[in-house]
Amino acid sequence: MCGIVGFIGQREIKRQLIEGLRELEYRGYDSAGIAVMQDAHIQSFKAVGKLSNLDEKTKNFETSGLGVGIGHTRWATHGKPTELNAHPHMGEYSYVVHNGIIENYREIKTALEKVGVNFLSQTDTEVIVHLFEKEVERYKNLFDAFKATIDQLDGAYAVLLVSQKAPDTIFFARKGSPMIIGKNRNQEVFFASSDAPLIGEAEEVAYMEDGTIGYATPDTIYAEPDSLVFVPLAGDKLTAQKGGYRFFMEKEIYEQYDVMNDTMIGRVLDDDVAFEELNEAFLDGISRIKFCACGTSYHAALASSYLFERQAKIPVEVEIASEFRYKEPLLTDDTLFVVISQSGETADTLEALKMAKNAGLRTLAICNVDNSSIVRLADATILTRAGIEKGVASTKAFATQVMVLWMLALYFAKKRGTLNATAIQKEVEAMSRVPSVLKKALDVHEKCKRLSKRYLHGHGFFFIGRDIFYPLALEGALKLKEISYLHAEGYPAGEMKHGPIALADAELFTIALMPKTLLYDKTKSNVEELSARDSTILAISPEFFDLADDFILTHPHEHMMLEFFEMMVVEQLLAMEVAIRLGNDVDMPRNLAKSVTVE
Ligand code: M6R
Predict the structure, then answer these.
(1) 590 C-beta neighbours (distance < 10 Å), count
(2) DSSP string, 509-556
(3) Residues in contact with ligand 1 (CB, 6 Å cut-off)
(4) How far is the first Cα of the chain from the last one, in angstroms, to the nearest whole number?
(5) Which strand (E) or helix (H) includes residue 490?
(6) Which of 190, 479, 572, 578 has its CA 20 to 30 A from that of 469?
(7) In contact, 402 and 303? CB cutoff 8 Å
(8) What is the residue with the minimal CA distance to atom 9 of ligand 1?
(9) Rg of the chain over CA atoms, in angstroms?
(10) 3-state SS class at 459
(11) Which pLDDT does position 169 carry in this prediction?
(12) Best substitution site from 302, 340, 342, 598 to test ligand 1's pocket, by max atoms within 8 Å of Cβ?
């Protein structure tokens, strides 16, 4: 996961680029670099570690007058975090920065090496700039050469390229990794991976669609297809950061497609999963797993426990951190202790981690915030790469936690030999479809908006589901109660008859998660029991259910996790729309804090 910035204009370019990268620091990085072009001459600087190191390296460099620059913060995927591997990567007269993964870089590299190209880095990115310069030999027009280059890349990318042969120009392309272009009345052009660096700088921005390719100069912004829709960017930071959405929560729900791509980059490969964060020996001697977390992160852990046991055949226990701390737990050193936390600062989770460490257990943090207390303490960390989550009600952090845990379950399964190659391939294929499922799931937003008016009262909501959809039911109920202040419970569908069904009447709202891939008929019977007792039913399913009072139709999928992610989005949208109708502050619900640093 990386950050990209670009700039065309009259300002001091180095400062513009580095300050832009500073706004993207939250995305995590281990090295950074810039390339600045003036009068067809390019200078480039790179540094490992924090941006202050790049500041130091560039302290005697300044520009004045018109210039063009690109900058990058790198999170190592191919090759170690070294200066050579840091972007921008150079050819003979061009420089490139890239966010994403070029899946076929090995083939391209081998072909280029055969015709005498020398590579300096271990990265996948470097192939782009050399390929471009080869294509320039074939095409007279530089944009044609750039298009021919991008055409040959498989994988995900946001690319900016500058070349001495086109002194005022930045070439750009996007597929699967986010990129925004901005402009203002001073004929300045900006690029960035998120809108943070553009606030107060660009007056209008366009959020690039996948498949966009183009170039920008001080006078022209040209894109193919002609899909750049410029919208005003508010000057005030808060409004601008919301990017046109009513609430951060809404923006974060909509961002899930992009952040999920980031979560998967370098980890979900063609027929495998990989974690650079874990060394080979990390799991040696581990024969059980204990997950420990709070709130939404606990739900992610619980959901993944089904995957770990089913796929990796490893016993798993899931604990609420505040309970774990005082139960005098029995801990054995064949246990991997995994804490999950969006913020990395949750007091109960942090204390639980300390207990596990003191007991000599191997510890792993799954966290969204690099350098947080939990990350610093754990033996190893896998970052979820969801980007800053501002809404108190967690959405994209949950999505990325579940994704990382699913990948980890598969990683374990492979290591333990519990899934064969075909089964692993099937999982990996399903994983690669998650981002597009998250995007398609948003189609029901309007429907959720309309339905929300029917769910503003009642004496309670029961979200019900079976198997992995039970933790999802817990999460749906938590979302609703956090921001709507309505009473909501998550329950295993099969457990309703053991007590809660006594509450059933027309004012008890049942939100039924009815996936087709998992125990559909069983769940259906449980919903029928509730319907017979007059509970109002909102069914979420790809199959029409005639006893439902309300119905949200999801897309058919072959894999249960794809149904899981789609239903997750439906729950998020529904909770948000109910809360908005009730006039609540969705981003800052009463009595709650984003980071709970007290016991
Ligand atoms: O930062 P953490 O993931 O450790 O936070 C744990 C809970 O406080 C958090 O998930 C909380 O439940 C959220 N507000 C849920 O939306």
Answers:
(1) 10
(2) EEEEE--SSSSHHHHHHHHHHHHHTT-EEEEEESS--TT-SEEEEPPP
(3) 294-297, 341-343, 346, 349, 392-394, 478, 482, 592, 595-596
(4) 33
(5) strand 488-492
(6) 578
(7) yes
(8) 295
(9) 25
(10) coil
(11) 97
(12) 342
Give the model's confidence band at 26: pLDDT under 50 very low, under 70 low, under 90 confident, else very high.
Answer: low
pLDDT at 506 over 90: no
Question: Could you check whether the bond before residue 225 is cis, i.e. omega within 30 degrees of 0?
Answer: yes
- Give me the residue label for tokens 């399903």: 430
Residue 18 CB: number of other CB atoms within 10 A?
Answer: 20
Task: Determine the residue of 351, 367, 374, 394 to mutate for testing ligand 1's pocket, defined as the one with the most ligand atoms within 8 A of the Cβ atom.
Answer: 394
Residue 191 CA to residue 296 CA, distance in Å, equals 34
Assign 596 a pLDDT band (cuts: 50, 70, 90). confident
Number of neighbours of residue 40 by Cβ within 10 angstroms: 12
Cα dihedral 356, 476, 273, 278 in deg (nearest 10): -20
| 167: three-class secondary structure by DSSP | coil
Between helix 396-416 and helix 560-581 the angle, nearest 10°, is: 160
Percent helix, strand and coil across the chain, each to the nearest 5: 40, 25, 40
Collapsing DSSP states into helix, strand and coil, what is residue 371? coil
What is the C-alpha to C-alpha distance for residues 339 and 9, in angstroms, rounded to an integer? 46
Ligand 1 mean position, distance from CA 60 (Å): 45
Tokens 């959809």 found at:
469
Known catalytic residue: 448? no
Burial class (CB in 10 A: 0-12, 13-18, 19+), 153: buried
Report CA(281)–ligand 1 centroid distance (Å): 31
164 C-alpha vs ligand 1 centroid, how far in Å?
A: 49
Active site (annotated) includes residue 367: no
Give the C-alpha separation, 201 to 189, whole Å: 9
29 pLDDT above the threshold of 60: yes
> What domains can be seen in the chain, in order of their start residue?
3-238 (3.60.20.10), 242-419 (3.40.50.10490), 442-584 (3.40.50.10490)
**Phi and psi (nearest 5°) for 42?**
-110, 135
Whole-number pLDDT of residue 335 = 97
Distance (Å) of CA 199 to CA 191, 426, 536, 570, 599: 12, 42, 46, 31, 37
Q: Please say whether the dihedral angle defined by the alpha carbons of residues 567, 568, 569 and 575, taken in this order, is positive or negative.
A: positive
Percent of the chain with pLDDT over 70: 98
Ligand 1 atom closest to the Cα of residue 296 is: 10
Could you tell me if residue 178 is left (phi over 0), alpha (psi between -120 and 50 degrees) or otherwise beta?
A: beta
Cis-peptide, bond into residue 88, ω within 30° of zero: yes
Q: Which residues pair with 90 in a beta bridge?
A: 95
Q: Determine how β-strand 170-175 pairs with β-strand 94-102.
A: unpaired
